[in-house]
Amino acid sequence: MTPDFESLEDGELVCHGLTKVYSDSQGKKALDGVSLSVKARGIFSLIGMNGAGKTTLVRILATQLEPTSGDAQLRGMDVVKDAKALRERIASIPQEARSIPWMTPMQTVVSYLLWRGIPYSEGKSRAIEALAKVGIEKQRDTLNRKLSGGQRRKVMVAAVLAADSDITFLDEPTTGLDPISRKELWKSLEELSKNHFLVLTTHYLEEAEQLADTIGILDQGRLAGMGTLDQLRGLVRHQYSIRLPAGVAVPEVKDGTVTRGREGQVQILTGEEEAYRLSGELLRAGARISVSRISLDDIFFHFVGEQGGN
Amino acid sequence: MAGRLGRQVLASVLVNSVYAMKNYPVVLINTVLAPISFLVIVNFVSRGALLSQAIEGAFIMSMFSSGMGLQSDLSHLKNDFKIQDMVVSSPASPAAYVLGMALSEIVYSIPALVTLVVLMAVFVHPGAIQALELMAVMLMMFTTSVTLGFTLSTFTSDIVQSFAFSGLISTLFTTLPPVYYPITYIPLPFRYLAYLSPTTYAGEIAQSTTGLLQVSAVSVALAWVVLAAVTIIFGVIAVTKARWREV
Lengths: 310, 247
Fold this sequence. Notes:
The structure holds two protein chains of two kinds.
Chain A (H helix, E strand, L loop, with lengths): L12 E9 L7 E10 L3 E7 L5 H8 L7 E6 L2 E2 L4 H5 L2 E4 L11 H11 L4 H14 L15 H15 L3 E5 L7 H15 L3 E6 L2 H7 L2 E6 L2 E6 L1 H6 L5 E5 L11 E5 L5 E5 L1 H13 L5 E4 L2 H13 L2
Parallel strand pairs in A: 3-8, 3-9, 6-7, 7-8
Antiparallel strand pairs in A: 1-2, 1-4, 4-5, 9-10, 11-13, 11-14, 12-13
Helix pairs in contact in A: 3-4, 3-5, 4-5
Chain B lengths: L1 H22 L2 H20 L5 H30 L2 H6 L5 H31 L3 H28 L3 H17 L12 H7 L3 H12 L7 H25 L6
Helix pairs in contact in B: 1-5, 2-3, 2-5, 3-5, 3-6, 3-7, 3-9, 6-9, 6-10, 9-10
């Protein structure tokens, strides 16, 4: 299925045929001709399975990696030719970035700001504010090695929050965080996205659904779909999902797909009218069911399942 | 602009030496022990005859090891913490980052260097000109090893590979060559091999400057030329071949 970019043509993050082949990959394309265009504001989330190309795309956009072919511009600046100018306006947390164990959160954030050219005293006040935002103000002078994994991750997020860059790349920033910490971080990211453009990769579809203004689905190096959640829904034929527990007799579905889970639970994807008819029939038979519009999970499996053959 | 560059350099110095020394003071002992322990061994084995050469050798080893330390530190920050990627996506230039990191290695070596300066003043007592010549040699050694270290760090992909490079080069360039002892102690066929290492020329200059080795003026001049050439070559390689952004 060809993604529909019509409504997003005037975007400020633009990629044309972006392709990456790593030298040690025996010709396998980590990114395969990715073209997209998205408004550089709010949160643009990239989702996909492991090895789908999310990190490669983010690293190219964050000027850390050269593409093999194709080009990309952010706010009119080419990520290769204008890298120096672009770096004035971007900040990035790589996927496996870790805070240095022999430093404290305060020292970590202040050093990062010094690298960005921000004066020490201003850096200190920004660091205090950012560490408070991510909820580790009490640990700011504790060595990073004594913090939990989630807290160490938050230190890195605090560093880019404090940088206050126009464009921030966050590669799986909430991986390893407990659900409460993750939701706290979402608040910070939502706050930051009001005045900044965030490019966020995530494994958590719920996170993309909750935070993203625009979602890009990558599958085996290709862009399988892109748009707002509603636009992505529009690309899927069936808009409604009915879930039935195991053991319930499934009525005849005239237009839709029926998927059975490992433990016998059933999901029916169908259109509005058919969902109305089927749910009425099931309720009359006394079945306990849930009916909803399709979620990002359904959309994701639609694209990746169909195109990735999974 | 200068203020900004200064802050970027300061960041590298803080991260790679000051905070480590402040939070883990035990690291200071290691920086002193490594060059001094070899000095002590050479002194005992030679019954004090090679003490002056060993002090100069420890100085050369210390400066060269500082630069090679840069290689493993840069690699550690790049591959294990992904800090270099964060710096790449920031206004900091590779030059500012590496200059700061190089200075951090000097800061890290201050305890060793101070100890060696004191030992040199007590046992070698060089004059002002000799001291200047020694400083020039040490600076060249440091520049050579820093540029070599930076280039290697951009190619290493993990810390094991990085430590292997670092250990190998330190052994080949500081432990084996005649920096702790005169080159005349090496049997002739092997002496030519020693000249493959830039530290041999540094040792020859340092030892002849302080009267510990008798060599012709032509040999000393040649050593200076070779040392300068190696420094320039490694510098050019670092500038042209090292990779800031991955390909």
